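Researcher: Good morning. I'm working through a list of sequences from a screen, and I'd like to move beyond sequence-only analysis. For each chain I'm collecting a predicted structure so we can compare shapes side by side. This is the next one on the list. No need for commentary yet; just the structure.
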Amino acid sequence: MRARTCLFLVFAMFLSIGSFIYADSVNNKDVEIAGIKFIRKGMTRSFTEILENEFDLRISCTEDTGVVDIVFVLDTTGSMSGYINDAVDHMIEFAEVMDSLGYRSAFGIVTYGDGYHFPHGTTLTEDIDTFVAWVDPIGSSGGADAPETALDAIMGAVDNYEWRIGALKVIILLTDACFCQYGEDCAQCISAYTGDEVATTLLDNGFMFFGVTESDLSCSYCADETYSEWWVHTISDSTGGSWFDIEDSFSGIYAALVGLLGTFNVIQLDVVNNTDHEIDSVVAYLDYGSCITLLYGDVMQIREGIAVGETVSIYWRVDFATGCEGPEGCFTIYISSTDTSIITPDPALGCMYIQPCWCSPVVAENITPEVGVWSACDPQPIQIGIYDDDDGVNEETIIMNLNGVELEYPAPRLTFADDTLTYMPDPDEFSSGDSVYYGLLDVEDMASCTLDAPVSGWFLVDLDPPILENEEPEDSLLSSGSPTDIAIDLDDIHAGLDEETIYMVINGTDSFTLDSAALTYDSGRLHLDPTGIYSWGMGDTVQVCVYASDIVSNEYCGPNSSEYCWFFMIDELFLFFEDTIVHAGDDITYSLQALEPARFSITNYELWVKYNPNVATLNAVITSGSASDGFAMVWDTTGGMLHIEASNSSPVGVSNDYIFLDIHINDDVSGGAFTAMQLTDATFDSGRVSYRSEDAMILVEWDQQPWLHDLIFYAYDGEGEYLEYEYLTIGCNASADEGFDPEYDIISTPPWPSKTEVYIELIDPLYPSFTRLQRSLKNLYEMPVIWRIITVDEPGSLWWNPNHFPPGVITLNGYIDMKRDSFYFYAANETLIIMFSQPGIDVGDFGGCPGWNLKSLPTAITVPGWTSGIEEIIFGPLEYDARTKTWVRNDPPRMGFGFWVYSLNEFNVDIGGIPITSVSVPVYQGWNFVGSVSTTATYETDPPGIINTSGGVYEFDCELQTYIPATILTIEPGKGYCVFCFEDGILTITP
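Model: Good morning. Structure tokens for this chain:
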């Protein structure tokens, strides 16, 4: 502590008072004056009693300060967290300034909400680090039921703290809520005091009160918000303190508060009860000269209930004009009592003189850095402006404090030029995280006038950029599948992150900021969710770059910025089945294959495989010899869904055959049947390993077997009656050929007049005479097989049994499926063409949308129940019979016809069957639903021109769920079409 005084000598001066009032006796008064004091700048100065009841005080030109006790009363409800943190952040700065000004300060704290307490006892601490350690961990919670018990907390500080004798007593209230009072109906806030009681206590006991609150206090219905705001403002001013807006900078609040401490002047009268009983009341009246201004309080003060031997203090807050001499600087205090038996002292006369300092002091200000900033400059210069407007600065008197070390000018790295004191640290003198405190302690001008007020400041050092680490997926990782989270730890341990500078760049082009929904920053970790944005697949390489800066401003060499890039590659376990052609009754070992599965180190997995149980029967799941050799496995199958669970202590092996399925192809399954083998779902290592899969088909090949089939013909006799029937036989045998085989074929004989005349036409160069057959067998290995049947003279009907044909496709006249129909009306002299074939099996694409879909077969299906393998389809196939104008369920659908299916979700699957190269279908006057073939095609009609091509051809948009116009020139595979025909005819779909 440094006492700074002007150099001139102040000689003792005693005022000449016209007359003094002498006491009747010295020691026989019931009430005795124990002393008169003057409190200024936290220093208590006692008047000297020069004669009985005559007191004098002389104050020289000095900047000395004294003892100040400061208690913070903190509202710790939930909304106060940020304010308390700001107050603590500047607490050290406040204490440093107090110390540099010479105040001997001590601190305490009371916290409150719906009650109050002393978190660290009622003893003040003079160590600011200890006080900050008290305040720093104080949390905030609750408080939604404002008002709070601020009055009780203030009275708790007044009554319970051990205020130091002679100290200037200061209470600082921090709150954003109103208070409740005694007598108010607040269920959650019960107070023992009224605002008037607390105000009287503060004024009567010489407290300085500072209110730091919101301008509009939050309040509930049960308390008076207007009164609370009025009380805080009024009592702050009345006690010599001030009100501050809690939204303001605490650095500025503390600076203003320190300035007000020096303006607090109080006259204190101490009186003692010398009787042997309690005195009911003592009255003190102050009469004062013109140099004294009473700032607050009545000239008459009353103290009640004074115990035996008790000394009580009476305060008048005043202003005193420096340099005032003579009677105008004197005051008289009259003592009396309402108890007329009490003997009171004679009036006491007090006179004082406060010497004005004639010096024009040296003025200083902090230039750079700003108080409390973060700096990335290395070195960061410290500059303080020092100004004197008359005699000039005496450089040799400059004393600077740097982190507790006094530097007397001149000193290394300390310069003074152009009214600016500069300290230039060495590079690396300060490290990241350092707090640097500095101040100008003293300086004089050339006339020895001292510094007006010390100047101090502090800044924080941050030379390090943000830290980025622990990336995910890891750098250079071969990621097992497309990640659902790209993340990295991102933090700045000193100044803190500027979140507006954070962004992530993917593959050098796509930038994401925290304004993007996909990028989030939480608890020190940055996350990007690429789901729905990217569809990375096997072999893709992904580069990720993250950029971030701290909050150090560019004025202080900031910001410190970081960039971190890494990459990872997408890898997926690839599983697939292979298309396989089998025969009915076959037993096959069918493998689910994987591409190099060992590199994923899989020790457990779960699989779901869908197949058609009408085509295949699953006998067993085999792991021996496969990548899953040695795995413990359980499996079951129901309704065509195979479920497998497997685990092992060692990972899967190197075999590309992941597992084997022992499958039996059902004995009664028809040629052309198929089952899709679909891996519908899978989990590998509890989801750690991602996968992709490819489905396949098991296709059933045609069986070659001899067959015969009778065709029955009935012709009309021309008079409305039928002739006797005739039957012809067609068939295949391995030994037969395309010509006449005496062993198998039968020549047609001329019929008798009442019998139907019909024959199978034969053209064989080896037997030119034989042109008509009744039975014709042909070689079954030479597909397709064609029979030409000639009807003679009369029209009639043809009948057959559709169930007696062998596996394969057999059609009449190119458009009648003889396995689906059983009769045909023919014309006189009509040539009928029957064709039998077993086309090669093929796979077609079949897809659609949620809702109704108008489809046709891309490949002809020969087995019913094929839609059961498409779980999305819940209804259909539904065909329209244009002849009868009715809807019918038809499974499988007919080649060349359109049909409807209804789906819950989008679907896209492969279906097996017979390639459709071209097809002819009957159409009827009105609307018809027709289909397509296996390739892009067009429509032709017989007779020509029967389709309404202008407004009579539509397809169905399944996404819009509406019909849209189409053209007959581009018929797409798998689609159905709605066409309007002017008359009956045949429609041929031709690639």
